[in-house]
Design brief:
about 210 residues, about 10% helix, Porin, 9 strands
């Protein structure tokens, strides 16, 4: 009886000993790179870079304007005007505040006459067709306080409403450019000589910083 009990205890001890020495087996795919190593680095999500156009910029522009289009033989007498301005852009909208001066010496009835157009200040609202693009058409309207003198002697000083159509380029760059056409009409006179001055157009090219 004692011999059977002893044999049973030895059998249990042997079984428990093998159980403690056993090591769990983990299958490792030997076809993966860095065999035998665990890559604990998670994949980073791709970062999409988005460029936002500058929200404001100052600019200088050169332009030509006249209440009456020059004749072909007068083209050499056209003097480009100078303008300075600042634009503040928020989304698809923009506010433009500027000042400009443009004059031209012409000969009428063998008499040399100086004509001019100036605005100080001029404020306009602009709407951008493609506000998130590097290049965008825009349109706007506004009003200016300014003066006009035509070659037939009419002079005007007062409020001048205007509409504008333009194309702005390189909006994501440090230096952006634009071309613009304005049509203005003297409307509310502070002082006036002769009939109310006619509507006039101005074409300009600008660069902003």
């Amino acid at each position: 009886m004692k011999k059977e009990i002893t044999t049973a205890f030895l059998t249990l001890a042997t079984v428990f000993g093998f159980a403690q020495d056993a090591t769990p087996f983990t299958a490792i795919d030997q076809t993966l790179p860095n065999f035998g190593q665990i890559n604990a680095k998670p994949a980073l999500p791709a970062i999409e870079e988005r460029v936002t156009p500058n929200k404001s910029f100052g600019y200088v522009r050169m332009g030509v304007s006249d209440s009456q289009l020059p004749k072909p033989d007068d083209l050499q007498q056209v003097i480009p005007g100078l303008g300075l301005g600042y634009r503040l852009i928020f989304g698809a909208s923009g506010i433009d505040v500027s000042a400009s001066y443009n004059r031209r010496n012409i000969t009428a009835d063998e008499v040399q006459v100086q004509t001019f157009v100036y605005t100080l200040p001029k404020a306009s609202y602009l709407y951008y067709v493609s506000p998130a693009s590097n290049n965008s058409f825009y349109a706007g309207a506004g009003a200016a306080w300014g003066g006009v003198k035509t070659k037939d002697g009419r002079e005007f000083l007062g409020l001048i409403p205007n509409v504008a159509l333009g194309y702005e380029m390189n909006r994501n760059n440090m230096i952006r450019t634009f071309v613009e056409v304005n049509v203005s009409k003297p409307a509310l006179a502070w002082t006036q000589t002769g009939d109310l001055a006619a509507a006039y157009a101005e074409a300009s090219l600008g660069a902003g910083f």
